[in-house]
Acetoin utilization protein AcuC
Amino acid sequence: MSQAVRVVWDDALVSYDFGPGHPLAPVRVELTMALARDLGVLDGAEMTGCVPATEDEIALVHNRDYIEAVKNVSKDGRPDLRYGLGTEDNPAFRGVHEASALVTGASLAAARAVWTGEAEHAVNVAGGLHHAMPGAASGFCVYNDPAVAIAWLLSQGATRIAYVDVDVHHGDGVQAAFYDDPRVLTISLHESPRTLFPGTGFPQETGADGTAVNVALPAGCGDTGWLRAFHAVVPPLLHAFAPQILVTQQGCDSHALDPLAHLMLSLDGQRTAYAALHRLAHETAGGRWIAMGGGGYELVQVVPRAWTHLMAEALGRPVEPSTATPATWRTYVRERTGEIPPLTMTDGRHPQWRDISEGYDPADAVDRAVIATRKAVFPFHGLDPMP
């Protein structure tokens, strides 16, 4: 088992709700926590609540005029399109400031626990809202909780933080917040911006001293290619950068069933990635790991199982993939959503990949993406870009 692990949760986190029909439905985290409890994953875990982030904490990343605009929208639910509040992606709603500040506060609670040594790992599955910009809402994200948590760590004296984002969408907001800050290494593995929002995340976006890293994967990429790309880029860079803390965003919208994107990962491939990130936290960051949720829009079949695996991995008690989902949880899912729940914790896949050190194929789109990224950033870190 890992040393002390914090799972940050408050039932009020489901108040981050853009309304009926919006893809980012809070039921996804509600079902996640219910599955983790019913499966016994949270037995013995250090569960802790959270308080909303203060305006000063939010202002570590966001402009004051933007925060004021969010607060004004929060009072009456009237849109303010100057700041991206009231769009189809980011509908205005009463209480949006309070809900967004609470999500940010949960990620700050996770960061504080790890920074102070109260916990080795900390998880906030409600967090990971990585698209919000300093002065605007974007991509379902109002306040950028990963960026605020990283900025807070820097304010406390951290000098080397690595952020790895495995969401299917480019982690553009976090990259933008630290693009010129060599203290923060941001690595994003995502579907190519040529085929998916937000249209950024090309390998040539390298930031300060090669500390912005982007792996733009082709639509249709599945477990084998994705894991090959991950292992060709992430471990060498983390070992070279030697962060004090590893912060990760585990958006699970890379799954084949996700309705908003075009990668083809299985739940088993995603679970394999979580295990790799856990190992890398111990190998490169002294075990200090802050993990967050993120995107994921297959609300019943994917998100609850993926992030239950994430919490189990962080707790050092991985769930056997063939484990049946609890009958109590399946009943709850049917009553809560009317949908048929998954019966087991696996998609029945057994992900395997070939390491790029064994050679690469220039005709393969995944290998071309990997080499483009390695050529763009590896020399900054004293690494050979070629396998």
About this structure: The CA atoms of residues 7 and 47 lie 5 Å apart. The beta strands are 5-8, 46-48, 121-124, 161-165, 184-191, 212-217, 245-249, 289-292. The first helix runs from residue 27 to 38.
